[in-house]
Amino acid sequence: MSFLIAEVIVDVSTYHVDRPFDYEVPTEWAHVIEMGCRVKVPFGPRNVLGFVVGLKNETDVPSNKIKSIAQILDIEPVLTEEMLLMAKWLKNETICYEIDALQVMLPSALRAKYEKIITLQTEKDVLPDEVNAIFGKRQQVNFKEFERAELLPLLKQLITDKMVKIENVVKQQGNVKEIRMVKITDHQQDIDKAMEDAARAAKQRQLIEWMGKHLGEVLLPQKIYEETGASSTVLQSVIEKGAAHFIQEEVYRDPFTKEVSRTQSLQLTEEQHIALKAITGSMEEQTAKTFLLHGVTGSGKTEIYLQAIQKVLDEGKEAIMLVPEISLTPQMTERFRSRFGEMVAVMHSGLSVGEKYDEWRKIQQGKVSVVVGARSAIFAPFTNLGLIILDEEHESTYKQEDSPRYHARDVAIWRSEFYKCPVILGSATPALESFARAKKGVYGLLSLKQRALHQALPTVFIADMREELQKGNRSMFSEQLVDAIRVRLEKNEQMVMFLNRRGYSSFVLCRDCGTVVQCPNCDISLTYHRTTEKLKCHYCGYDERVPQICPQCQSEHIRYFGTGTQKVEEEIYKLFPEARVLRMDVDTTKQKGAHEEILQAFGEGQADILLGTQMIAKGLDFPNITLVGVLSADTSLHLPDYRAAERTFQLLTQVSGRAGRHDKHGEVIIQSYTPEHYAIELAKIQDYEPFYEREMFLRRRSSYPPYYYVALVQISHEDVMMAAEYAGRAADWLKGNLSERVAIIGPTTASISRLQNRYRYQCLIKYKIEPNLIPVLQRLLAMYRAEWIKQGILMTVDLDPSTI
Ligand SMILES: Nc1ncnc2c1ncn2[C@@H]1O[C@H](COP(=O)(O)OP(=O)(O)OP(=O)(O)O)[C@@H](O)[C@H]1O
Ligand SMILES: [Zn+2]
Ligand SMILES: [Zn+2]
After folding, report:
1. Where is Zn(2+) 2 annotated to bind (predicted)?
2. Is 486's pLDDT higher than 80?
3. Ligand 1 pocket, mutate which of 296, 303, 328 (most atoms under 8 A from CB)
């Protein structure tokens, strides 16, 4: 097939441009071009990246107006037809630009990257010396060089005088890494002939003889030197004589660091068996069914995933296994690698851009059939999907917080409908929405009520920290927890100490006047960083030295308040000098592989206590852990978010589930200042359904999801009056265009009312059924993109906000 015209979505995120443009296909590419290829096209004064989304032979654009594609970047498409369809769906579903939807499906190495290039437009002798020094003998230099030399004002002048020009140039990324290998000839004749030619060169003859025993093999040159003792000159001569030749092989940067031993399928328990059968049954029927696998911690959900994937592989299909970034631990990925070996690609944020690209290529080229990865792995370019799994489906990290604001669960269900394959949503503490859908029969509900080896769930105690204070205990450990730790140390058993950092800040407080040091740009308190002795804003990056005296009242009693893992570690050593502690937090896991090393050390029994934050709440499966201590259960309870109780319950259940997973019984001690709160009381009895009932009752009473849907419109401006004014306009417009059944709350100030020097307002839309919602929001966005944006307003629309 050959085509004359391509429809191209260009990499320009503006409203007027959010549609395909027609371009002429140069004749020499008419047979090459395919849908899903990336191209470079002229757009306005420059070239930009674009995606071919359609091919045809006619266009309405007059022939003197149509422009030609400047360059084809891919011979083989990087986006499949399924993805082009999916982008159209995402565009509507999340109200984003189509270009954003297309880009999110690709590894960052393939996304557009532009470089500013300065080109000389005049003779050199008229230029100032310092500019000449930058250009040297070149005609083009990178903008960065001017930036570094601090010559930007001068550059600006040169551009105005038309002595140089500045352009955005699309930089092609995603280099395939190749390596030189030696391929030994397939034919004995070549060996015999080379032997003859080598005549009396003994070393060459030796090597040729060795090659005769390894016909057809492909080896690294180094390997040949090691095996035979030959030098590189000898190898070179032998190659000239035709006994072997050099080839370039594509290699993948291998993110795996160590070998794993293979494991076999386990004999399933009765409950596991029933669940697996339901899933494989729907595979056989080729239906796009979604299952909610609700299984208590340690019930063997992962084993079900593994066996379901095995079935998919047996049928020659492919599987996507999503896990939250934070639980993408080496222990987790190892379980998949040890079952499926080289068939597995792994994708997470710890990989370099090149490594991610290589994993992606393995999938695209059909070298692997399983991907284990975080949120974006849902876009893995498989073409014959047989199963999609979301483990810990309740996790909020499955929702992307910037455009396109998609939820991986929705994408999973869309793809499953495309491939007619099942989706498994797994969790010990499902999102309320999911459990409600399962109860209504929208999802198939599969339950595992028992732990895999029939171990009891751990016993949970609540330590009331208010009572501790009254008793005069000012430390961060309750008496009960101290006793429990002592017993474990004596018995040589292991412990996990969990510090709930969600919603927690370590701030600096004046004990005389109560001043908390705040960010000058944002209305939130600055976080104390011990290593640098600085206060830092987590939203805008602002930092300053820790003040010695209070900026308000000049008191010297200003100091750090709150608890970090380091502080807890010190406290543990004070109480138990003999304890061996491993700390796992952002500070100790900065280096690549650190995560892995800490867990390995703990697994080998090199420490008694694993101390950490959210990072250790999930996925850990160590037999010797018999005690879990939660130092601060309440911190996440008081966030201004309707899901605060749900999140706290989930976190407490997850972390408690790390104890007593094998033969030894587990115990959990949860420390709290509000032990009567239902999220904490119900976490104690470790039963999901009572919590579900209670929370559903409250959600219904205050009209929150899952009874209602919510959508959030946020508006910000540097000027508080402007922000309020336009938020008001948005609210009025929504009220005028949506039906009476919809509740519009606001405008109100956002929970963080100022961020990076911008004032923030929001409108919350609550609705049950509102067919008009998407078109109305699209029109609101159109208004914003056409007019409001010029006034400095920024507006976002989120149809499924994870916090409000
Ligand atoms: N059928 C089985 N027979 C024997 N052991 C099993 C079986 N299924 C699972 N296990 C073991 O039980 C332990 C817990 O299983 P697994 O980690 O799969 O549970 P999970 O439900 O995924 O846990 P969590 O959600 O708490 O992380 C593991 O050590 C696993 O190897
Ligand atoms: Zn003060
Ligand atoms: Zn700030």
Report:
1. 519, 522, 537, 540
2. yes
3. 303
